[in-house]
Amino acid sequence: MSLVEGNAHQENMKTEKIFLRVAEYEKRQLVEEAARRGMTQSELIRSLIARFPEPSKKPS
Fold it and tell me: Taking all residues of the chain, what is their mean pLDDT, rounded to a whole number?
């Protein structure tokens, strides 16, 4: 999937909230890594999820 296709796919999706329970150490890792990459924590998490394989199709 090209970057343009990926962005189009993301724009068509509804936003959902996810609440994560992480240790203080993991939270610091997230905060520091996001800052290092110049992105928000949400953007960093979405970029990690984007590496996962495509989900299977929903049964009709």
Answer: 85
